[in-house]
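cache lookup: miss for this entity combination. No prior model stored, computing from scratch. Input as submitted by user K.M.:
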Amino acid sequence: MAIKVFIVDDHRMVIEGIHSLLQNEPEIVWVGQATTAASCTDFLKHHSTDVILMDINLPDKSGIELCSEVKAAYPEIYILGLSTFNQQSFIEKMLDSGASGYVLKNATKEELLDGIQTVMKGKQYLSFDAATTLRQIPLQSNVPLITRREKEVLGLIADGLTNNQIAQQLFISVATVDTHRKNLLAKFDAKNIASLIKVAVKVGLI
Amino acid sequence: MAIKVFIVDDHRMVIEGIHSLLQNEPEIVWVGQATTAASCTDFLKHHSTDVILMDINLPDKSGIELCSEVKAAYPEIYILGLSTFNQQSFIEKMLDSGASGYVLKNATKEELLDGIQTVMKGKQYLSFDAATTLRQIPLQSNVPLITRREKEVLGLIADGLTNNQIAQQLFISVATVDTHRKNLLAKFDAKNIASLIKVAVKVGLI
DNA sequence: GGAAAAATCATGGAAAAAGGGGAGATGCTT
DNA sequence: AAGCATCTCCCCTTTTTCCATGATTTTTCC
């Protein structure tokens, strides 16, 4: 029984590459492709698939959102994230949103096939080894856990608001904002806001 | 006379995709591929090519550096940059380093062919229009031009150093660091360092 | 060689953040 | 009921940033 595969990626060359990699595989059926989240959901209204290869960056919405939505509507579809290098931080969110695994865009045909077949069995597939060997990525995952309020404050700080302005906007006292700020600095182990923002943006928190 | 094309990209799927796009084109000859800058320069020592399709992000060094090096050693080779979306800031540097143009990774076959043929005529090819139409890139195109020194200071600020520490590290006075800081804030039209760093990281400057 | 751009330095004052405490009020879980 | 996390608030001091204004030297480029 052949596995039906659909792909969502805004880079035509990646679509073309994967298509080319898979086109002579007997156990894979290429059911379609999309370059936007919207056209992906449209497709799913009228067609079925077993596996979706999903880029994390899409033009109209993030792969993370799309992943949640697809999983909510079609829990039987397995989603395999597609990732370029500097996006490890998003991967756990992708998995949290229901993805069954991910492969890197420089994966070989064997890895890709392995990934598709593994998730079809209901297992998780991660091509993490490839990532770490190809360049020394600091294994992070030590991204601090911050609360909803802290994230909110962090966003406003990154927008350039002062503690005072944030306090007004959130209807809380400046002292509270200051406390959140201090907690953020402590959680990120950052010397000041500059270094905090850098890490937060890189890690996808902002 | 067929055009010899070589590609350097660390994403095998992109290589595969472009290969697939070009394989049935009579006027294109695929001479080889590399996933690192090192293997690219190795290849060029023993083989020739007319055009190099070059990714801006490579594992061992940036496409910008590789571009300068290749152009210095083989000025007759035309280089066409390959870009994903959020890297507009690097493109002008790529052009400064000798590239003849660039195409986006979501380009169609026609655009890619057009790009290759245009640069072979010694002209510049930019697929910028496609970028702006496909998604509304917010600011980006007006990424401020900052100087080498400013970038250096910006990096240290983002690492969490204070003006004082930066001054010591660069052997300049605190007043100078402060001036650079002010100029950066002005160029980015940022209210404070927090918002500056956010934009700078997103735009790929850090 | 001259203009423009970049890098350097300075003073002084207002505003904001960083760093150190402590503490009460929720609500959720065990 | 006790424990824990979260959100809330406050005080104090020091450090740092932000802002305004002006100037000199070096580099770069035409």
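stored under new cache key. The first strand of chain B starts at residue 3 and ends at 8.
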